[in-house]
Write a structure and sequence with these properties.
This protein is an alpha/beta fold. The chain has two domains: 178 residues, 3-Layer(bba) Sandwich (FAD/NAD(P)-binding domain), CATH 3.50.50.60; 133 residues, FAD/NAD(P)-binding domain. The strands form nine sheets. It has a five-stranded parallel sheet with strand order 7-4-3-11-22, with helices on both faces. The protein has a four-stranded parallel sheet with strand order 15-14-13-19. The protein is globular and about 65 Å long. The N and C termini lie far apart (47 Å). The N terminus is likely disordered. Bound molecules: flavin-adenine dinucleotide (FAD). The site of flavin-adenine dinucleotide (FAD) has 38 residues, from α2, β4, α3, α6 and α9. The site of flavin-adenine dinucleotide has 38 residues, from α2, β4, α3, α6 and α9. GO terms for molecular function: flavin adenine dinucleotide binding; oxidoreductase activity. It holds the Pfam family FCSD_central.
């Protein structure tokens, strides 16, 4: 099914941005007289990794043609979605559009789903039926859920027991359930085993829902059932919970029978590995995860469900000229965070621009800081610096670490402020957008 690649108007719009048009080929393929050292890069996914890659490719070399394929007109960030759930932000705060990437950076943005990739022909097939050719392809599709990974939990169940692990409608649904819950109700969150998107995310979530309960439904309780025995920033979270929320939050690790093995969404009930049953008033299931489906279609994911990459460039180890960034990758010890996706995307943009120009890519280095809010004015963080050591991604010895356990209120308040500054700077760095109220 050879569909036109992109239509003539789009092609002229795309190529007009670089002034590099000549003609359309027989399949509607744009034949470009590219500036020396440039090429056409297709980026799939306009979240933290993809939007950053598209923007920085244009910043590093404006002659590179960049087409960003993103399914949605707006992107809702998971970062700060917990703040929304806790009543500390509006949805508008976490919504970002693509106008800046188009108008200020000359990225050609196509709102469609990339349905398939033909790595031999260097083509991406879109939900519109169009095929887009690339010299280099960057995939940043984020996660998809493994709907077979947890008994009883599928897309229909998520309408009753939301995951809210991709932000947007699911986040709104969870918030409306929390608002409708009676004071004295039980909120249960099921946290998944590693690896998963945002290691501190479930623990920040219960913190901010506890904040909401404390303000509006103080007799309510939170039960956090965990498929593992340890979690990110654990001592800091547990100190904070006790200090701010008393006994409102109960965390149960896997060896204490916290591992949920089946879900009955109709009755808001879960069953654990050792046979306990728990009934919730609001049930939040964070399911097992894997790389977004397009990574599987492109043949870059392995049996783990995630994507192995060459450490220095994040090019796929399986298919040439495909680069993968963000949550979809196997990049441990880097966590699956928006900050890492953004940092990886810059390294990929630099590697591609260097390759077009016939240079070696500069040595890669990545930073990450994940802030979590325990309560308004009470922030904590974990940070790390990563580079390639002996052919593997590794944390630079002595870099990073977590917030101190014994510190004063002013320190926690500063970290809460840094969290907001981080979010706003990161949004601007990624989409060129800043919330103006
Ligand atoms: C509750 C929560 C809190 C978090 N807080 C933080 C935080 O404070 N700090 C932090 O750094 N990280 C945080 N994260 C993690 C962060 O959200 C992810 O790590 C980040 O979004 C990963 O970026 P990505 O580009 O890989 O994927 P995403 O940002 O999810 O972007 C993927 C995009 O690709 C699009 N897409 C997917 N497939 C296709 C396709 N086939 N065709 C077209 N488009 C497609 C999707 O529509 C989406 O827009 C949090 C996560 C959660 C769940």
């Amino acid at each position: 099914m050879d569909q036109p690649l992109i239509n003539r108007r789009q092609a002229l719009g795309l190529l007009g941005a670089t002034g590099a048009v000549t003609a359309l080929g027989s399949l509607g393929v744009p034949m470009t007289a590219r500036a020396a050292g440039a090429g056409h890069v297709v980026v799939v996914g306009g979240g933290f990794g993809g939007a950053t890659a598209a923007k920085f490719l244009k910043r590093f070399n404006p002659a590179v043609e960049v087409t960003l394929v993103e399914a949605s007109e707006h992107f809702y960030t998971c970062p700060f979605s917990n703040w929304y759930l806790g009543g500390l932000r509006e949805m508008a705060y976490i919504r970002h559009g693509y106008d800046e990437l188009k108008d200020r950076y000359g990225v050609h943005v196509v709102h469609a789903t990339a349905e398939d990739v033909d790595g031999d022909r260097h083509e991406v097939r879109l939900s519109t039926g169009e095929r887009v050719r690339y010299d280099k392809l960057v995939l940043s599709p984020g996660i998809d859920f493994d709907w077979d990974g947890l008994d009883g939990y599928d897309e229909a169940a998520a309408e009753k027991a939301p995951h809210a692990w991709k932000a947007g409608e699911q986040t709104r649904l969870l918030r409306s359930q929390l608002e409708a819950m009676d004071d004295g109700g039980l909120f249960i969150l099921r946290a998944p085993d590693n690896p998963f998107r945002c290691p501190p995310g479930p623990y920040e979530r219960v913190s901010l829902i506890a904040h909401y309960f404390k303000e509006h439904k103080p007799r309510s309780k939170i039960l956090l059932l965990d498929a593992k025995d340890n979690f990110s920033k654990q001592p800091l979270f547990m100190d904070g919970w006790e200090q701010v929320y008393g006994d409102m939050i109960e965390w149960v690790g896997a060896s204490q029978d916290g591992n949920v093995i089946s879900v009955d969404a109709d009755n808001l009930t879960v069953e654990t590995e050792f046979g306990s049953r728990h009934q919730a008033d609001v049930l939040n299931i964070v399911p097992p995860q894997q790389a977004g489906f397009i990574a599987h279609r492109a043949g870059v994911a392995d049996d783990s469900g995630w994507v192995p990459v060459k450490p220095q460039t994040f090019e796929s180890t399986q298919v040439d000229d495909i680069y993968v960034v963000g949550d979809a990758t196997i990049a441990a010890p880097m966590p699956k965070s928006g900050f890492c996706a953004n940092a990886q995307a810059k390294v990929v943009a630099s590697a591609i621009v260097s390759e077009f120009a016939g240079h070696e890519p500069p040595p890669a280095i990545w930073n990450n800081t994940c802030y979590s809010l325990i309560a308004p004015g009470y922030g904590i963080s974990v940070a790390g610096v990563y580079k390639v050591i002996d052919g593997q991604i590794a944390e630079v010895p002595g870099s990073g670490g977590v917030s101190p356990r014994d510190t004063d209120e002013a320190f926690r308040a500063r970290e809460a402020e840094y969290a907001v500054n981080w979010y706003e700077a990161m949004s601007e760095d990624t989409w060129g957008t800043r919330f103006r109220g």
